[in-house]
Design brief:
By secondary structure, this protein is an alpha+beta fold. The protein has 7 helices and 8 strands; from the N terminus they run αββββααββββαααα. It has one domain: Protein kinase-like fold (Alpha-Beta Barrel). The strands form 3 sheets. The protein has a 4-stranded mixed β-sheet with strand order 1-7-6-4. Strands 2-3 form a two-stranded antiparallel sheet. A two-stranded antiparallel ribbon has the order 5-8.
């Protein structure tokens, strides 16, 4: 429960900085807000700890899916969804790819129950609650929108494609392990000259 509060309130702090940068931009408009979550101690109760947050009334929408596989049209097409994706991109860039706010969901621009993935365990003393694979999936799947451009964020697709291209070039230049010839002492090599290596 403490971890849940820490995750959401850490993401909330990033969202405040994002809002301070985005709101003054002409045409950007309203910015997503992560609502605070509070830890309550109830010593007389069977479950002594609980969380309390503002009730969100309206249509609850998942703008950012945890595993990156589901296509969410409300995320892609709505203003709130696009701004949530831009927020993820902004956090990713601000932390040099070390942290990603995931699982953005809520009503309109008010978000709750978010997750955080970190590139390294204990990044800035923070324990994420999501797998590092979410960062890799985000880097591969994120499509910049007009809000990313307004904030001057660098395209992740270009960087990701460069990484993949470099990896594929390396793998092409490395010989296949089945074609590598192992050095054999001269004495053993001479009588085997005409023996097929396939058995």
């Amino acid at each position: 429960v403490i971890q849940e509060c820490y995750v959401q309130n850490t993401a909330r702090e990033y969202a405040k900085i994002y809002a301070a940068e985005a709101e003054p931009l002409e045409g950007f408009g309203e910015v997503p807000e992560i609502i605070p979550i509070f830890l309550v101690h109830r010593p007389a109760n069977n479950i002594p700890y609980a969380t309390v947050e503002e009730e969100l009334v309206g249509e609850f929408v998942k703008y950012s899916v945890r595993d990156g596989k589901e296509i969410n049209f409300l995320r892609r097409d709505s203003e709130a969804g696009q701004k949530c994706c831009t927020f993820q991109h902004w956090v990713y860039e601000k932390t040099n790819g070390n942290l990603l706010v995931t699982d953005l969901q809520g009503v309109g621009m008010k978000l709750t129950d978010v997750g955080i993935a970190t590139q390294a365990k204990g990044y800035k003393g923070f324990k994420g609650n999501c797998s590092i694979s979410f960062i890799e999936q985000f880097r591969a799947l994120h499509q910049c929108n007009k809000y990313c451009e307004m904030l001057g964020l660098k395209s992740l697709r270009t960087a990701h494609q460069k990484q993949r291209k470099a990896a594929s070039v390396k793998s092409k230049t490395l010989p296949n392990s089945s074609t590598i010839k192992k050095p054999v002492p001269k004495k053993a090599r001479e009588p085997r000259d005409f023996i097929s290596s396939e058995h």
